[in-house]
Design goal:
The complex is a heterodimer of chains A (about 850) and B (about 250).
Chain A: H1 8-17, H2 23-33, E1 38-41, H3 48-64, H4 82-93, E2 107-110, H5 114-130, E3 137-140, H6 146-154, E4 159-162, H7 164-171, H8 176-179, E5 185-188, H9 191-195, H10 198-213, E6 218-223, H11 229-237, E7 245-248, E8 255-259, H12 273-277, H13 279-288, E9 292-295, H14 299-312, E10 320-323, H15 329-340, E11 346-349, E12 364-368, H16 374-381, E13 392-397, H17 403-415, H18 429-441, E14 445-446, H19 447-455, H20 465-477, E15 491-493, E16 500-503, H21 506-515, E17 524-529, E18 534-539, H22 540-543, E19 551-554, E20 557-565, E21 568-573, H23 593-607, H24 614-629, E22 637-645, E23 648-654, H25 659-676, E24 682-685, E25 690-694, H26 702-708, H27 714-724, H28 727-738, H29 760-770, H30 775-788, H31 791-803, E26 805-809, H32 819-829, H33 833-853
Parallel strand pairs in A: 1-6, 1-7, 2-4, 2-5, 3-4, 5-6, 8-13, 9-11, 9-12, 10-11, 12-13, 17-21, 22-26
Antiparallel strand pairs in A: 14-16, 15-16, 17-18, 19-20, 20-21, 22-23, 23-25, 24-25
Chain B: E1 2-4, E2 11-14, E3 18-21, E4 26-29, H1 36-42, H2 50-66, E5 70-73, H3 86-98, E6 104-107, H4 110-115, E7 124-127, E8 130-133, E9 143-146, E10 158-161, E11 166-171, E12 179-188, E13 191-193, E14 204-205, E15 213-218, E16 227-230
Parallel strand pairs in B: 4-5, 5-6, 6-7, 9-10, 10-13, 11-14
Antiparallel strand pairs in B: 1-2, 2-3, 3-4, 8-9, 11-12, 12-13, 12-15, 15-16
Classes of the chains: A alpha/beta (about 850), B alpha/beta (about 250).
Amino acid sequence: MTFVPLTEPVSEWFTREVGQPFDFQRAVWAAQLRGESGLLHAPTGTGKTLAAFAACVSKAWDAEHPTYGEAHLAPKAPATDIDTSGTSLRSTSGGVGGSISGGGLRVLWITPLRALATDTERALRDPLEALGLDWRVERRTSDVSSSIRARQRKRLPEVLVTTPESLSVLLSYADAHDRFRGLHTVIVDEWHELMSTKRGVQCELGLARLRQWNPSLVIWGLSATLGNLDEAMAALLGSSTDRGRLVHGQADKRIELRTLIPDDAVRFPWAGHLGVSMLKPVADAIDSARSTLLFTNTRSQAEIWFRQLLDHRPDWLGRCALHHGSIDRNTRYAVEQMLRDGEMKLVVCTSSLDLGVDFSPVDQVIQLASPKGVARLMQRAGRSGHQPGAASVVVGAPTHALELLDFAAARWLMERKRIESRPPIRMALDVLAQHLVTVAMGGGFEAEALFGEVRGAHAFSEMTREQFDWVLRFVERGGDTLGAYPQFARVVEEPAGSGRYTVAGVKIARDHRVSIGTITSDATLDVRFANGRKLGTVEESFVGWLKPGQRFVFAGRMLELIAVRDMTATVRPAKGTKATTPRWQGGRTPLSTQLSAAVRIRLAEAKQGVFDGPEMRAVAGLLGLQQAWSSLPGPDELLVERHKTRDGYHVFFFPLRGRSVHEGLGALLAYRLTQSEPRTVTVTVNDYGLELLSPEPFESDPTVWKRLLSRDQLLEDLLVCVRSGALARRQFRDIARIAGLVHPGMPGRGKASRHLQASSELFFDVFTEFDPDNLLLDQARREVLSRQLELSSLRDALTAIADHRMVVTEPDRLTPLAFPLWAERLRQQHVSSESWRARVQRMAASLEDLAGAAPATASPASRG
Amino acid sequence: MLWIEPQGVRIGLLGDKAAWLPQVGALVIADPHFGKAATFRAAGVPVPEAVTDRDLARLDRLLQETCASRLVVLGDLLHAKSGVTGALLARLSAWRETWAALPVVNIRGNHDRSAGDPPASLGIEVRTAGGFDLNKSGTPGSVVGFAHEPQDVAGAPLTLCGHLHPAVRLKTPGRRGGSMRIACFWQTAGRLIFPAFGGFTGAAIIRPKPGDGVYAVLPGDHNGPAEVIDAAALTGAARSPRRSAGTVQTSPE
């Protein structure tokens, strides 16, 4: 029998209730009991929760039975006296940091989603109750009732399940250090999800603080498959820990991708077109399984498909639901509960259901439209088929023909187990500014000591003292410029010159606590019926487009807008079929670097006449047409198509490197083109390429284009684009909110705080003019460069292109690769979706006619 | 200067978000919101103080250029009580001394009501909305109304108003679907609504009706100073209402 490193009653309970522990579980338990920190890499539904928690239960049991180790057969110890057990315990638990018993917080469980907290709370409570242990497990999230919060103010439970934001709030109380004194273990669930967000940075800073208080704190992260697990662990544990232990869970479940292959008829892809024709195959697939999760990439896509599927199959009404981030929270919880209970036939959802919650009753997962990334596809696939040994099946449903390529590329990567990495965020000064005020409230800080502590967080491990001091001065007196911000103070040095800082006042503290949190989005409006029932939220910018009386689809219903007042859109149910679907921001996930690389590989194969796998065979006809009319991009070629229409002169580039890189390329090309001579250039991008459109003809000499695509001066030129363009201004919105410039509405203080309303744009302008060295502006530019334009990928792309042969073709019509870009630009120009649809449909029809007449059957390899 | 003649009243619109009434030699501005930066700082939000200095410098330049014989502020002279600091009052007094002989009138706005009228030492006359006889002829039609909240002043064919901070969204040529939010003068029926003069003030996108006048204030750059252009053709005033993006969402100040 294998050794189980848990105290005996706990290991007996585990074997009885769960079964023989897996090796990875034993490895984590042993490491935790040795006092080591680390990262467990394991997919959902494989026992990772208990892997992370059972050692804590073991410690709890030992703490409540201090004499257990000495006298096995002694009767169960009576309810322990708090003080004495606290002292006797140290001998049994072997220096796992601080006293274990004595009430108060022992284990902190951090989760990215409130929705996960409820399930986790239950899962953690089970073993404690089964073993009769006197530990409380509670949630501390923004939706916990104020009475529970008040109780937690007095005394924290032994096990607290919370979010990064709520951890920050806890750290902001003056007695924070005392309240965390007995904490010995922190578990961060779904760390892969947090680490590349600013919430991850917030978490890193919080952990740095906890580690400062208790250097032997045991910290474990739980992560799904990632390409950079070592980096993920380093980001979690920070630079102060020399090394952690990386434990791999059960091998990832086998994932089987089954792509629905459309009929050959659809040749000319455009967003949504094929989607409609795929309605029946998708509905048939849903029919074939007991229950299905249909994942879409955007909330509007979810709304559209939910409507269409219900129109198609009215008999599913009542067993079919919609789930996305804008839907009212209580409705979402209800849907999740029905899923768990196996009462749902179909849930149409977005990334809102990517995470956590274990829906064992789900049989089938459908990915609608491009998977965008292989890690994401695998994560979604993992939501089904939890029977041991069973493969997870994910059904791919492309919405236009080129998405077949994306699925083909995803298959290629999955077969080779090449998963995307996620870069952790560095130097988020806005999050640091917020943290400084939090810490100033939570008992105050010494600048010198806090600098060291903050450098212990991975995100700031390379921060200089100058940068730290700037952030400190930013919260102390507004910024670097002396006298620029009279009467301003969020933290004060007391006494002056002591290097010791506390928060500047009760009101500042109260406002700060309300605005803690780094998740930001556009201002949103509640959508409610006249009777007050809430349906969810939509972005302000969407409602701005609507007039009272207009109809729109939301939460799966047809609604009519009555009025917009006080951040609430009042609606009533409407009848009819014509309506607008809200377009939410952030709906455009770019194709991942890995996936676009795989697309390039698969296209290069196609050029050689190799069509491997069902998706490639299905798209062969279309690619043949591309080759016949223009060319297919080979492995070391950059395909450029020149074209003239009544709209003007078009140049299409197909670097195949994902939307973000193409945006950067487009900005760069437009800037460099207009440098030499003033002209109007319209840039349109998608995941496959970009289109430049101008009323005047473009340069035809390929060497000129080569020069325009040069890597030299990349950063300088991009910075000019970023400075002059609206990009940085937009990026600044998040930063302004996190750094506490813009208050996201205070509950119950609507009117009173109105004189404090100012938009982030205003701050951007004021800083640009009066405080141009403000590091937050600098951060906005950096974020645009690195995150929106993916500077490093862009640099890689330009390096590759420098060696590429430029293949310039002049097709006399739109090619299959160019068509989606053409349609995309049209969509952006046309406000009315009706007229856009009509024009695109006409163009698609005429191209399909041509395709039928053209020698489209020419073998793709026959021309080169 | 862009000359317009709404309801027969000759008005010059200036790129610095002010207007010139030649018949009475009055410079008119709306919503300077002095002390807004200080209000924010008092609440722990860093806004540079230089905002006030720049606004006063703009005002100096306008008064010099127009040789105005009076200044009318269409309300919201001060932003909020917590922003009316000793430093702000000292700054305003210093400015007032350089223009000691200039009559200044403020039409009391909603912010003035909560911030309080400026101290008497500043020598600023505070009035409520009302009419002003331009050529003192007493004939109907020679009266112009002055108000903060948009309204029609009885007996005046045209009322100059503030409060809304109107702006329009103009598409920028070239760059990817970009658009700019640009402050504007908005003439709708018998009202001419002014853009906010204050440098640290927001703006609300308006939805002009066909026939409205929209005069956008293009910000100055290295090519030249700010100027006012007739933008009716570029915005909703000339198109179907569906085309105009946005609605008045932000609360007017």
